[in-house]
Specification:
alpha/beta; Rossmann fold; six-stranded mixed sheet; 10 helices
């Protein structure tokens, strides 16, 4: 098992945000986590990354216990996190943003190789490499956030709402790139407001409601559930 979470509890002061979540991700999978806003999806990713602390429960990645590790130590193990809202450094160039993603790699040769790979996935970033990140469109900033995460050559890439605020044509483009990254050997844990898109590329999925997993199974099973169709896959509602 690549990632194994058992009985996870996370609090924000008095608020019990995550209530006994157990989930796992196997090497080579795309696993989607869907649920309404405020369900706790982002908190789970932030806790895996070491940005939040678990009150109870365990998180293991390839046999290493993450709950007492710092965020940089977790990145070194091979986990990268593309946060909600992209969080690019707007006053730095595209190239500088990408190089920051490789700050743990001391080897210039491997950094250059990773950069080449990122530009293969995102030719637009190559064209814009000297531009300030703040001048990019929303779609380009999402590409940059993903490219920066790839610079550390992660074994597991966690994506938090990659399609948020993007036009439908760009959403399809971003999802094609996610599939390509996966095909080249990166395991994916995906949070996505567009549940249809998330389930269409996932192997398995978990449904989170108010901090608890209420359903899990193959993406196909989840897609066929009447409850899920009504809550997340209906015409007007694309919950996340």
């Amino acid at each position: 098992m690549m990632l194994k979470i058992e009985n996870l509890h996370v609090y924000y002061d008095a608020i019990h945000a995550i209530k006994g979540v157990t989930l796992n991700v196997q090497e080579g999978e795309i696993v989607s986590l869907i649920g309404a806003n405020g369900a706790g999806k982002t908190t789970i990713l932030r806790t895996i990354s070491g940005l939040e602390r678990a009150k109870e429960g365990s998180i293991e990645f390839m046999g290493s216990k993450l709950t007492d590790m710092s965020a940089p130590e977790i990145v070194k193990l091979g986990i990268s996190h593309v946060p909600e809202g992209r969080r690019v450094f707007t006053s730095m160039s595209v190239l500088e943003n990408l190089e920051l993603g490789a700050y743990l790699s001391q080897n210039k040769q491997s950094r250059d190789k990773n950069l080449e790979k990122v530009f293969e996935h995102f030719p637009r970033l190559y064209e814009r490499r000297q531009q300030l990140a703040g001048t990019l469109s929303g779609g380009e900033q999402q590409m940059l956030a993903m490219g920066r995460a790839l610079m550390s050559r992660p074994k597991l890439m966690m994506l938090d709402e990659p399609s948020m605020g993007l036009a439908p044509i760009l959403v399809r483009q971003i999802f094609d790139i996610i599939k390509e990254i996966h095909k080249q050997g990166t395991t994916i844990l995906l949070i996505e407001q567009n549940a249809n898109m998330a389930l269409s590329i996932a192997d398995r999925a978990y449904v989170l409601e108010t901090g608890k997993i209420v359903m899990s199974g193959s993406a196909k099973e989840i897609m066929q559930s009447e409850d899920i169709k009504n809550a997340y896959l209906g015409g007007a509602v694309h919950g996340s």
